[in-house]
Amino acid sequence: MIEAAALGLLVSGLGGLLVPPLIARIPEPAEEPAEQPDGHDRAEDGALPEEQAPPEPAEVKVPYAEIAEARGLRWRTATASGLAGALLGATLGWDWSLLFLLPLVPVLVALSVVDWRTRLLPTWLVSRTYVGLLAALVLTALLARDPGGLVGAGWGWLVAGASYFVLWFIYPRGLGYGDVRLSGVLGLALGHLGWAELLTGLYSGFLLGGVGGGLLALIGVADRKGVPFGPFMVLGALVGVVVGPDVAGRLVGGGA
Q1: Nearest 5°: phi and psi at 39?
Q2: Which of 87, 123, 228, 236 lies at a 20 to 30 A Cα distance from 61?
Q3: Exposure string (b/e) for 124-148, b if CB count within 10 Å is 16 or more?
């Protein structure tokens, strides 16, 4: 366990050093052209009628390059990634799943940082994470000679993605579609590990997002208008890996 934890600290920690340049590479979203009102809808003095007055300017998004250049970001992301990797190694030991989990950690940290600063989970990075994770899952299955993990990953993607999609469809103002995309990534990773990790990770994300996000908004750390949910999803997934089997065992064993 100690050796696996050290490996996780090293691999994910080194990956964490690459988080700022990764964020800097994310292309800025295309700006939608402002709609020009039809001249026939103007009042006689040339002004827009009150009901057609232009909306208040939207909040200006922080550029990704500016986020990447934040002072101390490199060592903070390296520390967070390294600690998460060490925790995964200590929990799972010498398991084949570390092959895809340890490289995934810094990418999830990058997405968390971006979501926290912009309330956006860029498709550019999420889509590439899907491709890399799927390739790593296939490689893991080949090396471990166990295709069962791929089946579990598929179920995880379906359950997590469908759950978030339904919630987004019912109340899109409370959940962004970027969260739906990210849920698929987390579902693939957690589903490979097992149902206990998957269900505990999903529930923990909602619990942390609801309680933790509310507390952060209450003390002024986060914006009351919209607390980013991505970081809590990632943290919940980590909780699912660490305590999922124990929680499931207690539930099945009746708390014994």
Answers
A1: -60, -25
A2: 236
A3: ebbeebeeebbebbeebbeeeeeee
Q: E strands of 23-101, at which residues? A: none
Length of the chain: 256
Handedness of CA 208, 185, 16, 246 (dihedral sign): positive
Q: What is the pTM of this model?
A: 0.86
Rg (CA), the chain: 21
Per residue in 21-65, pLDDT (tens digit) is 999 999 998 765 544 544 444 444 445 454 555 555 556 789 999
Q: Are 194 and 200 in contact (CB under 8 A)?
A: no
The whole-angstrom separation of Cα 187 and Cα 152 is 9
Give 145's contacts (C-beta < 8 A, 6+ positions apart): none
From its phi and psi, is residue 255 left (phi > 0), alpha (psi between -120 and 50) or beta?
A: left
Burial class of 171 by CB neighbour count within 10 A (0 to 12, 13 to 18, 19+): exposed
CA distance 145 to 63: 44
Spatial CA neighbour of 77 closest among 121, 34, 24, 33: 24
- pLDDT tens digits, one per residue of 207-221: 998 787 667 666 665
Interatomic CA distance for residues 58 and 93, integer angstroms:
48
130-186 residue pLDDT tens? 999 999 999 999 999 989 999 999 999 999 999 999 999 998 887 899 999 999 999
Residue 246, φ and ψ in degrees, nearest 5: -65, -40
- Which of 58, 70, 80 is closest to 24 using CA atoms? 70
